[in-house]
TrEMBL record:
This is Recombination protein RecR. CDD domains: TOPRIM_recR. NCBIfam families: recR. The gene is recR. Pfam families: RecR_C, RecR_HhH, RecR_ZnF, Toprim_4. It comes from Lysobacter yananisis.
């Protein structure tokens, strides 16, 4: 029979994505058997992060201050605004590209069946930014899912209403990929979106 505290720890670890009962149990046992100091450090870091990290008022990304360092930087190109679904997507673009514009983090995608509409994505804040007149191009970097495509279409309409050029990240055959191994949906989209060389 397990202790109530051990069960609480296992249940608490299951809040993480992809962590089921067995994984949570392994983590809990590891922390208690071999990493008590690491567990205390994790607990303190998690508590402080939950308490002190909020959202930037300009881009909605995670931030410890009212305006995040990216939005506050004078070195960024304010004429370019990249809309992404999540902070993880923003980080991926920042690390993989030379993009030097600004971001708008939707914190999700349109999904009426799940009760996620324009208000939940903060699109009123995006409209206000587009209305300022500084943004010239809205780069739409939503994921190529049904909801991501619907969100991209909606964002493109908003951009056009404010005389902002909407653009969409390219989708298709991955670099180094071989056509015979690419899934049908990706290949069909890439073929339909082909460009002149």
């Amino acid at each position: 029979m397990s202790s109530a505290l051990l069960e609480q720890l296992i249940d608490a670890l299951r809040v993480l994505p992809g962590v089921g009962q067995k994984s949570a149990q392994r983590m809990a046992y590891h922390l208690l058997e071999r990493e008590r100091a690491g567990g205390q450090h994790l607990s303190a870091a998690l508590s402080e992060a939950i308490e002190k990290i909020g959202h930037c008022v300009r881009c909605r990304d995670f931030s410890e201050s009212e305006v995040c360092p990216t939005c506050a930087s004078a070195a960024r190109d304010a004429h370019l605004l990249c809309a992404v679904e999540s902070p993880a997507d923003r980080l991926a673009i920042e690390q993989a590209t030379g993009y030097r514009g600004l971001y708008f983090v939707l914190q999700g995608r349109l999904s009426p069946l799940d009760g996620i509409g324009p208000r939940e994505l903060g699109l009123d804040s995006l409209v206000a930014r587009l209305a300022e007149g500084e943004v010239q191009e809205l780069i739409i970097a939503t994921n190529p899912t049904v909801e991501g495509e619907a969100t991209a279409h909606y964002l493109a309409q908003l951009a056009r209403q404010h005389a902002v050029k909407p653009s969409r990240l390219a989708h298709g055959v991955p670099l180094g990929g071989e056509l015979e191994y690419v899934d049908r949906g990706t290949l069909s989209h890439a073929f339909g979106s082909r460009t002149e060389v």
